Amino acid sequence: MSARSALAAKTIRATVERVVTRVNTLSAGGPGWTRPSYSDLESAAHTMIEEEALALGLAVSRDAAGNLFALLKGRNPQAIPLYAGSHLDTVAEGGAYDGQAGVAGALALAAALRAEDHTPEADLVITVTRAEESVWFPVSYVGSRAALGRLAREEMEAKRVDTQRSLAAHMRDQGFDPEAVANLVPPPPARFLEFHIEQGPVLHMAGEPYGIVTAIRGGLRYRSARVNGVWAHSGAAPYDGRADAVVAFSELVMAMDRVWAEKLAEGADLTVTFGRVDATSPAHAMAKVAGTLGFCLDMRSSDASTLDEADGRFRAEIARIEAARPGICFELGQQSRSQPAHLSAAMAGFIAGGAEARGVSPRRMLSGGGHDAAAFAAAGWDSVMVFIRNWNGSHCPDEGMDLEDLALAVESVHEAIRLEGRL
Amino acid sequence: MSARSALAAKTIRATVERVVTRVNTLSAGGPGWTRPSYSDLESAAHTMIEEEALALGLAVSRDAAGNLFALLKGRNPQAIPLYAGSHLDTVAEGGAYDGQAGVAGALALAAALRAEDHTPEADLVITVTRAEESVWFPVSYVGSRAALGRLAREEMEAKRVDTQRSLAAHMRDQGFDPEAVANLVPPPPARFLEFHIEQGPVLHMAGEPYGIVTAIRGGLRYRSARVNGVWAHSGAAPYDGRADAVVAFSELVMAMDRVWAEKLAEGADLTVTFGRVDATSPAHAMAKVAGTLGFCLDMRSSDASTLDEADGRFRAEIARIEAARPGICFELGQQSRSQPAHLSAAMAGFIAGGAEARGVSPRRMLSGGGHDAAAFAAAGWDSVMVFIRNWNGSHCPDEGMDLEDLALAVESVHEAIRLEGRL
To answer: Quick one: pLDDT at residue A393?
Structure first.
């Protein structure tokens, strides 16, 4: 190993470790990490990255929605810029790596180039988005879509699920300008790269440190659905006359479990998840048949038509259950969707080239979770993701990632950037 | 109609209306009525009944647990006293009649006897129990069992589900003496009568104002059961590897729904209710497979062996689901039980005799809900209930009862009391 590459390797490892550690000092408490979208905690995390970027001598800017950009100028103004980054908000009681790892990896690229005093061919723009986790505001990819000029004015009125205040209000609280977001002129389409922990077990099971993502599943969601029945006494209401919201919901869950299995058997790509169930109001009690139950449903697929079909089956199962159970009535509320995103084959090749130069052939794989890269792809950017092995699930306090796996992935991209000038 | 019976009829109607109206001025707010067990609101309701009893010239006393007794002395000290009453606590967001109607009916009996200046053969003891609704403390019939010397010292340590403070502490807050309850000497077994709204639709469907209850279903409960799975990402965790707490719970609900239908087909008496379901922690989210879900189960039957069989099937279904779904593990927590109670045929005949004298033949029927009368029956008292027609379910804000139906039932019991002296 040359002194140059030894220095880059060391810088990459020091940077990812320091950035992940620093950001993870910020949490609202409870198990795991909680940094809501457009919260003071998310803003503080952005400030940390700004400090890191300034220490590397990068030129820092923010857009009207509070997305952070840190520019390492390339030598060829004609080369298409490479934006690299991720987000720093988390779900409630999330993990140590979802988002953070991608920001740390991007910053490590810049740090390695700086350490060896290498000016890349194209501009490298460290990109830290806002509000990627749609559990807070019922809107997908708020920050990245705002940066891309694709966040509609009415989406600003979405309410944060816990505070019931609007996205615009929370944006303003953090010092940003929702009015200006609507008129934001996005940068010309360029290239986008996102390191991220895998949210499933594929790489872990295969014993591989990282992989290249070629597509991102889209989602179809009912965030605040409800089934209403008829309150009754648990010991006195007979079997036949009941309209029990818990039983009707359970029948729907099992029906959709069968729909999912059938779709998989047909070779379709699909996930079906009822992640939140609420029959806990003051009126709910052991001695009462539940008259209402709230729930949410999240279905995902790499194929939009599969989502349509699954939604059709979902509505058909509801109609069947309502017909069979007088007094039962479902209210689905608003549906939200994100489109499946096919990532860039050219960018996959770019990453693979760097890996190949280091003697490895990372697998091509699918992303189950939605990511900012999907928003960039939808806006016509050449986008790609690099997944890092994770052995403990995602969106949970136990997310498991080895920083060394991330460092290996960063080294391959670093190699790809260095090669770019020579092609 | 004689002037005497006209006066009694008028007094009964005025009393039930006034008592129900007065008690229902007391509520913690929200839809319906909320008077927790051993709360200031329950105590205030007891004080109202004390005022009513004192106005009738009855001798009022309270036992160490705060149960209220108001004595109308009979003419024959050898005759077995008739205790009549019910409770004044409610479930959260309960109705206008559950408990109240029974106290109002009992007081109306005394008021009618007083109005016509009739001294009954036996002592009439208006009885207002404490803490009948076991949704607050996970203990059945707290007040009546305390009055009967059957509340165990360790049951005093049960925690109120919302405050997490003990029954003993709440009892003390209301000025009573949990230590003395353990040593309480109960009155000699006598007769107990409870008017109560029916908690199912039987009388309403039949178009009958009241009926005589011959047995009370017992209950088998898991008040704080839980199913644990494995948290995962909704879009990335594959079908086969999931341990989804919501799906496992739903499978259990549907399995127990089938068990219930099978038991009914066998001619057994059973109800099965999952009344509360909680997958709403900060960790639960639309984008996560639920790693845990809390629930409660209430099964009731007039036959204790049916409850045992249903519990066996419940545990077998859980074992089957755990075996089929690696990572799924149920924690049932403590089981609580109340025994089915067979009420007194002699007391049913006593009530029927009064009704017959008024030209009516009320039906004999089963109680689905547990009631204080079950505790008196278990202690060897000759107990009976009179159910009043109700058309809107029970334990809910919409409980529907016509005060005229209650008045008709009270008139029949009043007639039975008047006849008693002459037999």
So the answer is: 76
